[in-house]
TrEMBL record:
It is found in: Cell membrane; Membrane. Belongs to the ABC-2 integral membrane protein family. Its main location: membrane. This is Transport permease protein. It holds the Pfam family ABC2_membrane. InterPro entries: ABC2_TM, ABC2_TM_bact-type, ABC_2_transport, Nod_factor_ABC_transporter. It comes from the Bacteria.
Length: 285
């Protein structure tokens, strides 16, 4: 008598679980920061540009001359907020628009899209890299301004709170705008030729290189449409005395308007970016 044995079903092997989004985003942030610091030319430009421009303005206008007689505000102190604002834009908008377009051009985005890494982790990594580098850049700029040019820094928590939310909201807005803008140029090599002039023009009309109240009215209205003007104005409310609000065209710091304009740009760029972002080159299908 023969007996038959029923073969047992093969044991199922469970696929390894993916790490959580927070862990993936942090790992991607570390990778992005490392990759950023390997680009020496970009690192030097992003960190040195605001410091060099502050030094130039302090030399040209004089670090001891007051902006207005009896105001107690010297030119380095007035131009510091504009340099902080332009540093935020360089670290966020210009940096991401250029780097993401280059990654699309060389096929990095296409290969990355074929991996299990969620798209959200990639974008969170980019945003984390921008926040970290912008923070280091701003700390360096404030150190130089305080040590070399004796610019007084805020000594109360309220001003530092204003600095924190303007910095974070401005950086996030610039980052999202950079991601959305990265799909506009036809190639990675043409991105700098498009992005740099835009940033430079905005610096001239947004009160970075000149006193904003002395600019023509039409130029002030144009600047009021874009985030850089509001980031610079928010930073002036942090580093200038309260009486300096009289130098603003509105006569006040307009914190509410600053938050609204930056939030509108953040949401608008997010919507545009979701609809237009490309993982491949235009000629790659």
């Amino acid at each position: 008598m023969t007996t038959t044995t029923t073969p047992r079903p093969a044991a199922r092997t469970s696929a390894p679980r993916m790490p959580g989004l927070t862990r993936l985003a942090w790992a991607r942030t570390r990778y992005e920061v490392t990759a950023f610091f390997r680009e020496r030319e970009a690192v030097v430009f992003v960190f040195a540009y605001p410091v060099i421009m502050l030094a130039i303005f302090a030399t040209v206008f004089g670090s001891d001359e007051e902006l207005l007689p009896g105001s107690g505000v010297h030119f380095p102190q007035y131009f510091l907020p504009g340099m902080v604002a332009t540093g935020v834009v360089l670290s966020s908008f210009q940096n991401l628009a250029t780097f993401i377009a280059a990654e699309r051009d060389d096929g990095t985005l296409k290969r990355l899209r074929a991996t299990p890494l969620p798209a959200s982790a990639y974008f969170l990594g980019k945003t984390g890299q921008v926040l970290l580098t912008a923070g280091v850049q701003t700390a360096l700029l404030l150190t130089v301004a305080g040590v070399v040019y004796d610019v007084p820094l805020p000594d109360d928590a309220g001003r530092w709170w204003t600095f924190a939310w303007v910095f974070v909201l401005g950086t996030a807005t610039g980052a999202v705008c950079g991601v959305a803008f990265s799909s506009l140029p036809r190639s990675g090599r043409s991105t700098s030729a498009v992005v740099v002039p835009i940033v430079l023009v905005l610096q001239f009309v947004s009160g970075v290189f000149f006193r904003f109240d002395e600019l023509p009215g039409w130029m002030q209205q144009v600047a009021g449409v874009f985030p850089l003007k509001w980031i610079a104005q928010g930073m002036r409310s942090v580093f200038l005395p309260e009486g300096a609000a009289a130098l603003e065209p509105s006569g006040s710091w307009q914190h509410g308007a600053t938050a609204v304009v930056l939030a509108v740009w953040l949401v608008g760029a997010l919507v545009v970016g979701v609809r237009t972002f490309r993982w491949r080159r235009r000629d790659d299908g």
